[in-house]
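Query form — protein Right handed beta helix domain-containing protein

QUESTION: What is the three-dimensional structure of this chain?
INPUT:
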Amino acid sequence: MPTRRARQAAGVTAGLLLTLGAASPAQACAKHRADHSVHVVHPGQSIQRAVDGARPGETILVLPGTYRESVRITTSELTLRGSGRKSVITRGPDGASGSAAACAKAGHGICVTGTEGHRLTDVRIESLTVSGFSKNGISASQTDGMSVRHVLAEKNGQQGISQEKSIRGRFQENESRGNGQSGIFLANIADGKGGAIDTEGAVISDNTLTGNRIGVVVRRLRNLTVEQNSITGNCGGVFIVGDDGRPRAGDLSVRRNTVDRNNKYCAPSDRLPYIQGTGIVLTGVEQTRVTRNEIKDNVGASPLSGGIVLFRSYVGGLSAGNTISANTVQGNGPADLADRDGGPGNTFTGNTCRVSEPAGRC
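ANSWER: The structure tokens for Right handed beta helix domain-containing protein are given below.
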């Protein structure tokens, strides 16, 4: 049995070893976990392989380079972070296999995929470029608390950034440009109908949206804020869309955005006339507040053209109880404010504008 002096010597030795950098088993285990909390991906390596090997709470760090692949995330609390815009995810060769095959086959760049009853939580996508996919740059479904920040989404065939069936999302300080449909698209269901979802406070803020068909589309949702975005050079700026479904879309805030010169021409679809010169449109929604926006020089001759437009939904649902107040709406044509809906309880107060339909709204 060791003597008291031997035990003291052993204790001193252990203390010196710790001081000099040797670790106890517990510390070594913690260090091992820390070393593996960030998975670094170099050009020529697979992002998907790193994602597949990551656990909740870990980060995939993508170094500058071009990565020709789709990426599918099915793990909660995962962060996919690039090194800025030079970390580029773009379309890879056809016939992808493995975890990302379904995402690639659908034509998307990054897929974040939960399931009904099991939403993915707190996934973060940050500081990278996603470009050149036939459908969506980022496509998310069944998520809770997902965050997309400092992403450039460009030249994708449909949506730059898309999310459905999700709550508490944050889409902030991104640039989405030159996409075939929306810069940012949030919906209850991307391809289908149904009552509006309460997003529990989702936010679209401080983004730059240019050269898309529409800058921001919010479809069949409630309890969401669109604020402080710069939206210019699209066919249309912001579309807040509902219908006759229950619960109704609405209880949204659209505030402090700059929406100007959205004068591209986009051909009609099976649901909408052609789009050109459209600032902010409300169609088939209720109790939405459009306040303190600057909406200028959106000019066209479409039924959707004008600064702020209330437009009857394609299924005939009226907009009701919406508040249009304290906006600067100037130089839009054919009108700065246009109520082409006729729904009950919509109010126009304190706006700076010159021309309205019908007269008297300014």
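ADDITIONAL NOTE: The chain has one domain: 64-357.
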